[in-house]
Amino acid sequence: MRVVVHGSELAAATAAAALCSVGHQVTWMPHAEFRWDSLARADWLISEPGLKDQILAGEESGQLAIVDEVPADADADVHWLALSPDQRESAESYVRQVPGRQSTPLIIVNNSTFPVGQTEKLEALLGHAGQVAVALPDRIEEGRAWETFTRPAHWLLGSEDEWGTQQIRELLRAFNRRHEVFQLMPRRAAELTKLAINGMLATRISFMNELAGLADSLAVDVEYVRQGMGADTRIGFEYLYPGCGFGGPNFSRDLMRLADVQHSTGRESHLLEHVLDINESKKETLFRKLWNHFKGELEGRTVAIWGAAFKPGTARIDHAPVLTLLEALWAQGVTVRVHDPAALHALGELYPDHPQLILCEGDFYSACEGADALMLVTEWKCYWNPDWRRLLQSLKTPLILDGRNIYDPAYVASRGLVYRGIGRRA
């Protein structure tokens, strides 16, 4: 098929690379706010495993063309829109121009997180028979975008048009070989389901964080509680890990979008509001543990942080817990030494020349030299099994604040360090 992909989101880059890799002729037009010349240098794209190599391979093969404007004579079978939520007007403007250059039937794929009902509106803007819009909500996971697109667990396909459904199945046939991945439903249902999934995941995380706080108060190790809950088949183990808060551009935006949807219908969601409030408060958990350990005497101290990205495998720091943590530490006169395998550049751009921020590249132990505590914020694999003797020698005070509960409290204590986790006990 001839496919035009429009957008500068991770979903757009992944779709362009994946679709051309299986033989489709793809034209990719990044959004005007973030053209390819700058997109190609973006940390989040460079750090996404294998994705940029796939894009370059597509260009070299001739199956992928990256353009600033779609040619006037373009006659595509599919226009794939993967834009950010605040680019909805841009999407509508783009779709209005499509019928004028089109002489054959086409599909508009709404792969963006727009308000519920937007796919129907995009179809109405086309105004031609044989031109339909379907909803295919973005299900890409940062850090494993290529894998989640090419080997999907499932797609939410919102379509009420039999021909449109057939075309999408053909478009993605190469990625639907292992098992049936399409869950067919009406367009509005697909749009709402995408938001509902992230709302449920966020609720599970925040509930576990609430339980971790309760476990601390009752002198209970929350790991026993997590294991017991997860063993119940009605609950399962996924997203039951307490921690120092979640972040990320897509997760956070989807939650706000779901809250907006509820508000627009006159239904206030006290549950979702509470979930968001819990998450924001948990981003300060490690700071409060540090405060309690030193009895509020933090002025002039140095803290090491391992991990700044909102999750392992990405260079993004959007809404990341580290941002709240940094502001709290700096307000108390604390100097912070940060190591992250991918996100230091983004942190440096956000806080250029900050006097209390030291970015430590290369050896992650260098961040711990002379520090009064180590905070584990993002659970990159390189942090899971440190050289405990070297760590003990590097730290001025042998205190570890584990924001992701990746260490065994008893073992860390046996190596001569003080351990503080999220609801964990040695």
Strand portion, in percent? Answer: 5-15%
* Rg, Cα atoms, Å: 24 Å
Uncertain regions spanning at least 5 consecutive residues:
none
SS content category: alpha/beta
Number of helical elements = 17
The protein's oligomeric status is single chain
Number of strands: 14
Give the end-to-end Cα distance, rounded to a whole number of Å: 59 Å
Shape: elongated
**What's the story with the biggest beta sheet?**
6 strands, parallel
* Average pLDDT taken over every residue: 93
Q: Strand order of the main beta sheet, please?
A: 3-2-1-4-5-6
What's the helical proportion of residues? 40-55%
Walkthrough of the structure:
With about 425 residues, the chain is of the alpha/beta class. It is built from 17 helices and 14 strands. The protein has a 6-stranded parallel sheet with strand order 3-2-1-4-5-6, sandwiched between helices. α16 (about 390-395) links the parallel β12 and β13 (about 400). α9 crosses α11 (about 250-265) and α9 crosses α12 (about 270-280). About 45% of the residues are buried. The mean pLDDT is about 95. Pathway: Nucleotide-sugar biosynthesis; UDP-alpha-D-glucuronate biosynthesis; UDP-alpha-D-glucuronate from UDP-alpha-D-glucose: step 1/1. Keywords: NAD, Oxidoreductase.
